[in-house]
Amino acid sequence: GRGLPTDSMKNSVKLQVENIISRIQKHKDEFQILHKLILDSPELLPELQSDKPIDGLSSMVDTLNNFQRVLHSLPKGHMSQLHSDVSTLQHYLEDRMSSLQCTHRKTGTEKNLEALLKNHSV
After folding, report:
1. DSSP secondary structure of 19-40
2. Above 80 in pLDDT, residue 29?
3. What are the backbone angles phi and psi of residue 11, rounded to the nearest 5°?
4. What pLDDT, on the 0 to 100 scale, is given for residue 94?
5. Where are the transmembrane segments (predicted)?
6. How far is CA 122 from CA 5, 47, 74, 96, 115, in A?
7. Band of the pLDDT at 19, cuts 50, 70, 90?
8. What digits encode the pLDDT tens for the residues 55-84?
9. CB-based contacts of 59, cutoff 8 Å, min separation 6
10. Domain extents for the chain?
11. Long-range contact list for 109-118, CB < 8 A, 24+ apart?
12. Cα–Cα distance between 119 and 59 in angstroms, integer?
């Protein structure tokens, strides 16, 4: 099949991101740990700092992967739609990376994140 025009892809990704942001806003009061870990204590999770520069598709996929790990550690239920939205965006970007033949850089943050989540009993 023929790929979507660039503007359509940008609009689709932008809409997905806006939905994710909206869901995070909705849940941040209900799940204080999400807000505390990600927004109030960026030194705990430097992988998820909001001011971390985006360095291409690989960087975006890596950040979404780390965010997914945090979501998996939270109580189930209300977060399922947020998890689904983030997963959809992540898979879209991974497919895009593949079609553009981008390399996925492995970072050492996964072990740090796993240890933090385990130690803080998120």
Report:
1. HHHHHHHHHHTT-HHHHIIIII
2. no
3. -65, -40
4. 87
5. none
6. 41, 16, 6, 32, 11
7. confident
8. 777 878 887 887 787 777 766 666 778 888
9. 53
10. 6-119
11. 109/46, 109/47, 109/62, 109/66, 110/65, 110/66, 110/69, 112/47, 113/45, 113/47, 113/66, 113/69, 113/70, 114/69, 116/44, 116/45, 117/69, 117/70, 117/73
12. 26
Query: Buried b vs exposed e over 72-95: b needs ≥16 C-beta within 10 Å?
Result: ebbeeeebeebbebbeebbebbbe
Q: What is the pTM of this model?
A: 0.63
Distance CA 33, CA 27 (A): 10
Residue type, 6: T
Q: Which residues, 6+ apart, have CB-to-CB distance to 67 below 8 Å?
A: 38, 48, 86
Residues 66 and 86: beta-carbon distance below 8 Å: no
Question: What would the two tokens of residue 33 be?
Answer: 């740990």
Give Cα 69 distance to the centre of its chain. 9
